[in-house]
Design a protein that fits this description.
Elements: H1 4-15, H2 21-28, H3 32-44, E1 64-72, H4 78-87, E2 92-97, E3 104-110, H5 113-124, E4 129-136
Antiparallel strand pairs: 1-3, 1-4, 2-3
Helix pairs in contact: 2-3
Length: 151
């Protein structure tokens, strides 16, 4: 589905989402028009979903990082219903429906413990929730979503 040029375009955009078409074309020795059309195709096909800035959350005072596993009460379509509720909580940046002992993994950034406890109380007050278990991240050793692009 993707060839080497597509992968290289994606890598460049992940490194710097503001990279110009001219820069990418020169780096890959490909015409600028080719880069333009390939990026548009990658966007249209949903491979590129958006462009983001890498944020230093510590400097924003949002360095209290938590990983919460959530077990919900089973009912038809519960993963969509409960997942939408959890996704709507401010500061929650990742919600994953998983198989196993728990149903969801929730990643959240907060200002401090009290800020996180408000998020947790919101989750625990949902009638569909059976229990939660939270891990508090002591130190981020690696956090780089670009690593997922090993094609």
């Amino acid at each position: 589905m993707l060839d080497e040029i597509d992968v290289e375009i994606i890598k460049i955009l992940q490194e710097d989402c503001r990279a110009s078409l001219e820069y990418i074309a020169n780096k890959l020795a490909v015409p600028k028009s080719t880069i333009y059309y390939r990026i548009r195709r990658l966007e249209k096909d949903g491979i590129i979903e958006g462009y983001y800035a890498k944020i230093n959350f510590e400097k924003l005072g949002k360095d209290f990082l938590t990983i919460t596993s959530v077990r919900a009460k089973y009912e038809q379509g519960y993963h969509e219903k409960v997942g939408k509720k959890i996704c709507a909580i401010p500061g929650v940046w990742g919600v994953y429906f998983v198989f196993g002992e728990n149903d969801f993994i929730v990643m959240a950034r907060s200002k401090n413990r009290e800020d996180y406890l408000r998020k947790l109380e919101t989750i625990m007050s949902m009638p569909e929730i059976e229990r939660t278990n939270t891990l508090i991240v002591a130190k981020v050793l690696k956090e780089d979503p670009r690593e997922g692009l090993a094609l």
